[in-house]
What does this fold into?
Amino acid sequence: MAETQSAGPDGAEPQQGLDALVRRADEDRWLTARFAPEPARAGLAAVYAFNLEIARIAEHASEPMLGEIRLQWWREALDEISQGGPARGHELALALDEAASRCARTELCAALTCLIDARARDLDGEPFADLEALGAYAEASAGGVMRAAAVTCGAELSDPDAERFLRACARAWGLTALMRAFAPLAADGRAPVPRTLKTKYDLPDALLAQRGGRSGVTAALGEIGAAAQSAYDDASRQSVDVALWPALGYVALVPGYLKQMAKPDRDPYADAGERLLLARQWRLLISSLSGRI
It folds into this structure.
């Protein structure tokens, strides 16, 4: 849900610009990518920059149709990359084409297209019906990023256990990310609270936009956090293949974020559950060494 801007400062090499963008706007994924082999890191930067770009479209589109036009542009760009044709003259498209040349081209583009399809839901503006619908969205959107990253790293996902593991990781991370982004999303009229929880805790959109109903918001986010914890628990029971870990190892940070956001005195409109960089680095190191999320 992070905001982004046009990638690549003047005078910088394209990949250096994308890497700097991801480091600034999506630090947890950037940190985890440091554990990937050097040849895969540029591809991961392109994948994560693409995720930021797709999120930015939904966040800044003045009308749904304008956002859909931009998403369609990227669908067509990915289709061209998938077929091995010349990439469009856009820094990110060129970087994705380069990443695709180093891995399974069609699989990478398919995963990124699924990400677009999942994030197209952001243009809708309608609240999710219930917690399961919110979880499915979190799984699809975060899962698209993870699948693309896994392909970039050369990880194998054909095994049913690996697929179940990835889906649990995606749901855990996606829900946690939505909770952390609650304040800016609520201010924009897109609070990630399902309709059933809005009704249960008396949280009309107008109240959320005015930063009201803190006790109800805390209770609703608590239920979302419980769903995220449940998905994390499912993922944590399985060991992670060494090739797959750099694509989703940041999921190891979920319990820490959930603990921060569960503090009784936390203001959901002011505290995104941030954790110190050193604590996150240490947790990622332990996870990578243990082979478990």
Notes: Residues 115 and 144 are 5 Å apart (CA to CA). The first helix runs from residue 14 to 25.
